[in-house]
Design goal:
The chain has four helices and four strands. The chain has about 170 residues and is of the alpha/beta class. It has a four-stranded parallel β-sheet with strand order 1-2-3-4, covered by helices on one side.
């Protein structure tokens, strides 16, 4: 069986593959998951969804934020269900990349995961070792540093991620 890596930005990053949640971890085809700014534990969207919730406007807010935007709210049933069995699946190596300047996944630390039995998690802040990378949520996916971190997570022999000055562009 060949190992299948999964890499993706938010919201694709939070799709925890159902085929990985088998009774026998040795049958998992997925061996590595790499995420960029995923809303693993939900988001407040810089307070927008929290305010909408307080004003009982989350339902009507779906027209603006879309169903996926509402489902990623920190208190949503989707996020509760997603995390009900823990963050990880045995036999999978996870790499989670966050940026301190994330304006979508807020608080930005909510992207980080906790390893369960038989899984490994490497939580990385984009600015660790590169304080000049100011990439925000959307621009992180084309940050040379983030791209280097993804390559390294998928192939440990890949070169170290470069440190390049980046503005928080959208």
């Amino acid at each position: 069986m060949s190992a299948t890596p999964r890499a993706g930005p938010c919201p694709a990053g939070i799709s925890r593959p159902t085929e990985a949640r088998t009774a026998d971890p040795s049958k998992n085809k997925i061996k590595k998951v790499v995420q960029l700014g995923a809303t693993n534990h939900g988001t407040t969207m810089s307070g927008i969804e929290t305010l909408a919730d307080m004003l009982h406007m989350l339902g009507p807010g779906e027209k603006v934020l879309g169903k996926a935007g509402i489902q990623q709210y920190v208190k949503s049933d989707f996020i509760k269900e997603l995390n009900a069995e823990g963050d990880t699946v045995p036999g999978i190596d996870y790499t989670v990349v966050a940026t301190k300047y994330d304006e979508i996944t807020t608080p930005w630390q909510s992207t980080f995961m906790t390893a369960g039995p038989g899984a490994t998690v490497q939580n990385i802040t984009l600015q660790e070792g590169c304080v000049v990378d100011f990439s925000a949520h959307l621009s992180m996916s084309y940050s040379p540093r983030a791209i280097g971190l993804v390559k390294r997570a998928l192939d440990p022999s890949a070169p170290a991620a470069p440190c390049v000055p980046r503005a928080p562009t959208f």
